[in-house]
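Memo to structure team: turn this sequence into structure tokens by end of day. - J.P.
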Amino acid sequence: CCPDHASVLNLPKVQGRWPGSCFVCSEGHPHGLGLHFHHTTDGVACVTRIPDTYCGFDGMVHGGIISALMDEAAAYALFARHGKLGVTRDITIRFLKPVPTGTDIRVVGEIQSFDPPQAEVAMAIYDAEGQRLAEGRTNWSFPRLSRIAALAGVEEEVLQDFLDDCRKM
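Reply from structure team:
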């Protein structure tokens, strides 16, 4: 379905960096995860390591963090493949096996359908051996960029520049 851990790092990086303080992807967030995605054929993937600070049970990533990782992969898949900024309408997550803290995991988002005003994205998390640990699907809608800019307190031009940068390879 998607490249393995080592292959992901050789794929072109998604160039866009979110201009705000997103907990999952922004470099400037003091407690954030700082994810960096790479372009794949159908979306994006990243390799990351979640610190013990974000555990549920000791040694296992909290389910809310797992959900946030997959929601972000879906968002970046839409940014990178279609240059669209949307909002999650619904998300379904299946937790298959514990996601360990402190080890490399691969987070993947693959576009299943894109037909504005809607889109569907499948997401998954894998361990270094390629075992699927969690999977999900999400549906998106696409409000006007000006509406999102107003809600986020960011100029529309800044968001458009971000989206344009995300599509660059």
